[in-house]
Amino acid sequence: MSRLPEGFLWGGAVAAHQFEGGWNEGGKGPSVVDVMTAGANGVARRITDTVEEGEFYPNHEAIDFYHHYKEDIALFAEMGLKCFRTSIGWTRIFPNGDEEEPNEEGLQFYDDVFDELLKYGIEPVITLSHFEMSLHLAREYGGFYNRKVVDYFVKFAEVCFRRYKDKVKYWITFNEINNQMDTNNPIFLWTNSGVMLKEGDNPREVMFQTGHHELLANALAVKKCHEICPDAKIGCMIGCVPIYPYSCNPDDIMAAEEAMHQRFFFPDVFMRGHYPSYAKKEFEREGYHIVMEEGDDKILEEGTADFLALSYYMSTVVKADVKNENLEGVVNGGLPNSVDNPYVKASDWGWQIDPEGLRYSLNILAERYEKPLFVVENGFGAVDQIEEDGTIDDQPRIDYLKSHIEAVKKAVLHDGVDLMGYTPWGIIDLVSFTTGEMKKRYGMIYVDRDNEGNGTMERKKKKSFDWFKKVIASDGEEL
Ligand code: BG6
C-alpha cells in the first residue's frame, strides 16, 4: 500500500503579498514588502524608505488574485485541492497596525475568499504573518524589537480568530520565523520582524531580543486561539534547510551540530515552551542582555504550538575549515562555513535539490518534538517555456515534486512520521520572495506576467496541473 492516509491535507501554498496585488485597495496600508524593489539571482532587492514615485515594486500588483480570486479558486478546485494555504495581509485588517478598530473592507475580503474555498470543500490553512507587517509598525516602532508590537500582533490575531472561527480550522502564526537567524542579509530581519539594523547594533543581540518578543506574540496568539477556536489547530512555521557535515571528520560533525542551532532555536522555544540551554549559554558567553519580563517564562510555557509547520526546498553542507567572506546577499540557507554538496544538483538559482533531505528533516523534527508536522511549502522555482501550441511542459517541476512526495511517503509510511499534509509552494505562479522576480516560477498554473510587470494576467494550466490532480486523487499512489 503506497497511499498516504485518507484525510491527508493535499493542497497548495501562497502568501498574500506575493499573489494578491491590490496593495492600496480596500483600505489596505503599505507593508514592509511594499517598499521592496525587484532584484534577481545574486542581485539583492532594495528596501526603500517609503513607496517612491517611479520605482517598480513587483508585489504591488503581483498576480492580482485580489480581482481574480473566483477564477483562481475554481482552478484549485478543479485540481482537487483539499486545502489551500494563504496568509491574511495584516495591513488589510490594520492598515497601520496600531489602530483601535479593524478595517471592515479587509475583513470582508477574506470572508469572501474563505467562503469561495469552502464552497468547493477546500479547507483554508491560514498564516497570520507572512512577511506582511505594516510599514508604520516597522518604521515608527522598530518592528518586533519593540515590545509594544506584541500587543498589536495579538490584537490582530484575536480579531481574525473571532471573525473566522467558523471558517478556519488550521492556523499558522508566523511564516519561517527562523529566517532572521541569518542577520547577514537585511531582508530576513526586515520581512520577519520589521527590524532594520542600525550602526553600532550587535546583530545577534538585536535578533534575539526581537525573537523573544515574537515568541511571546506567538505563545499569546496560540493561547487566544485555543480559547476562541477550541476545535482549531494552531502551529508556527520554520524554514527547514537541514545542515549536513561535509565529512565524517569529527570537526565537520560538530560544525553541523552547532550550525543546526540556527534552525532549531525558534522551534525549540515555541514547541517545547522554554529556552534551550545552548541559547542561554550563548547569551552568557557573549554578554547579550535580552530583556525578559517576569511572567514571560509562563507565557512561553503555556503557549506551545499544536503542530510544527515547515517549508523545505533544499539542504546545505558545512565544512569546519571553510570561511566564506561575503554573506550579505545569500538567500539559500548558506552559512559562513557552507560548501556545495558534491552529491546533489542545484536549481538555476543555486538551491540544492535533495529529496532525501526532506525525509531527513521530517524525521529529526518528529523525533525532537513528538508533535504533528505539516509541510506547508516545497517546490521548484524555474523558468517556464510556452510552446508554439500554447502548452507548458514543466517536467523538471514534476520530477522535483515527485521525488519529494516519494520522500514524504517514506517518512510517513516507513518511518511513522505524523504528517498532517503537504502543500506545494506557489500552486499558481507568483512573485518570488527573495528576488522579486516573476520568472522564478513555482506554479502549476501559469500567469502571464513578466519581471517588469507586463502581461495580460491570463491563467494557463501547465503539464504539472493534471499530474498533481492525479496525485491528489490517488492520495499519492500515482506519481
Ligand atoms: C519561503 C517563503 O522562504 O520560500 C516564501 O516562505 C518564498 O515566501 C519561498 O516565496 C520561495 O522562495 P523564493 O525566493 O524562490 O520565492
From TrEMBL:
<feature type="active site" description="Nucleophile">
    <location>
        <position position="377"/>
    </location>
</feature>
<dbReference type="InterPro" id="IPR001360">
    <property type="entry name" value="Glyco_hydro_1"/>
</dbReference>
<dbReference type="InterPro" id="IPR018120">
    <property type="entry name" value="Glyco_hydro_1_AS"/>
</dbReference>
<dbReference type="GO" id="GO:0016052">
    <property type="term" value="P:carbohydrate catabolic process"/>
</dbReference>
<dbReference type="Pfam" id="PF00232">
    <property type="entry name" value="Glyco_hydro_1"/>
</dbReference>
<comment type="similarity">
    <text>Belongs to the glycosyl hydrolase 1 family.</text>
</comment>
<dbReference type="InterPro" id="IPR033132">
    <property type="entry name" value="GH_1_N_CS"/>
</dbReference>
<protein>
    <submittedName>
        <fullName>Aryl-phospho-beta-D-glucosidase BglA</fullName>
    </submittedName>
</protein>
<keyword id="KW-0326">Glycosidase</keyword>
<dbReference type="InterPro" id="IPR017853">
    <property type="entry name" value="GH"/>
</dbReference>
<dbReference type="GO" id="GO:0005829">
    <property type="term" value="C:cytosol"/>
</dbReference>
<keyword id="KW-0378">Hydrolase</keyword>
<dbReference type="GO" id="GO:0008422">
    <property type="term" value="F:beta-glucosidase activity"/>
</dbReference>
